[in-house]
């Protein structure tokens, strides 16, 4: 039986996610409804993607009983309220990253999922790319020996995009880009909490972080360095250094299609999209969608590939990094 998807929000990332779903077998994944706060936007989205049911409010989508899981593609600052709406309506939910604005909100979402006995996953799509799966396999078999250092960089000049620069929209380099670097580190170190966190950076004139450098120290003198920026182009790669060699994601580390292991490069091409995409490599969103389907078929409430504990750790470390750099959101003052 197909997994029946509802799409919450008719924005750019929801478009790309819908296109990615179309690359999967129709017998496995079907998009049955879309909702937007503007009915006309939802209708235009439905027409473009041939989606049968259209709603002009998220509440209507939450009441639709013929949906197995909802994809939430709203802006960062709306993740908590929108996520809770669907979770309390006993819907399984996949929420775009970051799961919420801070650790308090993340815990509220995972607790709500637990209370309502439904599935919840933060949409860290990178975790489910074939490249990431191969990295996990290589580390598991000790391909590069004991890991000593992880480095991950992600940055581009993006200050022309309002949602990335406005505090009230959850802007800033950490929440949008740094999360990809940190999730890579925590994937390599199996969700271990660092012993120390040191963050340095600066804020742009809107009060959000423009560039942040994070240095994490783990047990056994293992280190990680993450750099993220919305003000400059970085190398956008990731490197794992071990006692017996290196594993490198040479580019597009957040949506990787190539992997270099001790100098040998392997390509992992993505399927072609049926419609133009808003973001690079977005057909790779198919992998997280399939992960959700497999979890639902097994009646799991969280994914082992992106468990709640990792979402908690990501939020905790980003909260501390923001504190050190001096970035606060309105949500931080709510107890």
Please tell me about this protein's structure:
The chain has 335 residues and is of the alpha/beta class. The protein contains 10 helices and 14 strands. Strands 8-9-10-7-11-12-13-14 form an 8-stranded mixed β-sheet, covered by helices on one side. Strands 3-2-1-4-5-6 form a 6-stranded parallel β-sheet, with helices on both faces. Strand 1, helix 1 and strand 2 form a beta-alpha-beta unit. The longest helix has 18 residues. It is globular. It starts with a strand and ends in a 10-residue tail after the last helix. This is Trans-1,2-dihydrobenzene-1,2-diol dehydrogenase. InterPro entries: Gfo/Idh/MocA-like_OxRdtase_N, Gfo/Idh/MocA_domain, GFO_IDH_MocA-like_dom, NAD(P)-bd_dom_sf.
Can you summarize this structure?
Its EC number is 1.1.1.179, 1.3.1.20. Helices cover 33% and strands 24% of the residues. It has helices at residues 12-21, 39-49, 58-63, 79-87, 103-115, 130-140, 162-165, 173-188, 285-297, 308-325, and strands spanning 3-8, 29-35, 53-55, 69-72, 92-96, 120-123, 147-155, 196-203, 209-218, 222-229, 238-242, 245-249, 258-261, 264-267.
